[in-house]
Amino acid sequence: MQSQLVPKMMFFTKGDGKHRQNLQSFEEALRDAGIAEYNLVRVSSIYPPGCKIVSRARGLKELQPGQIVFCVLAETRTNEPNRLACAGIGLAVPANKEHHGYIAEHHGFGMNRKTCADYVEDMAATMLATTRGIDLDPDKAYNERKEIYQAKGLVVHTRAVVQSVEGDKNGLWTTALAAAVFIV
Predict the structure, then answer these.
(1) Rounded to the nearest 5°, which phi and psi values hold at 92?
(2) What global pTM score does this model have?
(3) How far apart are CA 152 and CA 2, in angstroms?
(4) Which of 33, 83, 151, 184 is most buried, most CB within 10 Å of its CB?
(5) Are the C-beta atoms of residues 84 and 111 closer than 8 Å to each other?
(6) What is the dihedral of CA 109, 179, 120, 145, to 10 degrees?
(7) Is residue 4, in this structure, part of any structural domain at all?
(8) Pairing of strands 52-53, 9-19
(9) Whether residue 160 has pLDDT greater than 90
(10) Residue 153 backbone zone (phi > 0: left; psi -120 to 50: alpha; other: beta)
């Protein structure tokens, strides 16, 4: 049997950075998030069954500089003064621990932290619900749909990690970053 790369742990992190160079602004955000010293590989949106969510401090203890690390990463960069930018990760965990959950990422402009958090939680929960055959009215508010998910025993927990920033007043590149980092 082949070895499988199924994560056993995951942690959330976020950061921001400013610099006159675009790429260095991103590097500063990675440093602020504590994940600059790893070779990050972006993956899609599945939360594995049985994966344990740990603190950032605990997760970082499991990693070594230079290690290839899989993550769901959201990042937004701007050099427009005062422009509101956000990066968010949302998670929806199903009631049945044998099923996978969903991770959603969003990178955009004009949303504050709370609005972005609600948005990514809603996306993750909606992806989970639709894979389980729950019909949804997209015009209903997230709280109404959340009640439907819970009534059907689908979602045990949703959560989000979001970084929002305002573009530097002097036009420096400003990066917002959020990540769900997997430990295999």
Answers:
(1) -125, 120
(2) 0.91
(3) 36
(4) 33
(5) yes
(6) -170
(7) no
(8) parallel
(9) yes
(10) left
Rounded Cα distance between 172 and 161, Å, is: 24
User: Could you tell me if 16 and 174 are in contact, meaning their C-beta atoms sit under 8 angstroms apart?
Assistant: yes
Q: Could you tell me the two tokens for 37?
A: 């010293």
For residue 19, being part of any structural domain is answered with yes
Residue 137 has pLDDT above 70, yes or no: no
Residue 46 lies in a domain: yes
Tally of domains within the chain: 1
List, for residues 5-37, the tens digit of each pLDDT value.
899 999 999 999 999 999 999 999 999 999 999
E strands in 98-137: 101-109
Q: Which residues contact 179 (CB under 8 A, 6 or more apart)?
A: 12, 13, 14, 33, 35, 40, 71, 72, 73, 74, 89, 161
Q: Domain of 137?
A: 9-183
Instruction: Please name which of 177, 152, 182, 180 lies closest in space to residue 76, comparing C-alpha atoms.
Output: 177
Cβ burial of 132 (10 Å; 0-12, 13-18, 19+) is middle
Q: What is the pLDDT of residues 67-115, one digit of tens each?
A: 999 999 999 999 999 999 999 999 999 888 899 999 999 999 999 999 9
Residue 175, domain member (yes or no): yes
CB-neighbour burial class of residue 160 (10 A; exposed 0-12, middle 13-18, buried 19+): buried
> Would you give the distance in Å from CA 91 to the centre of its chain?
7
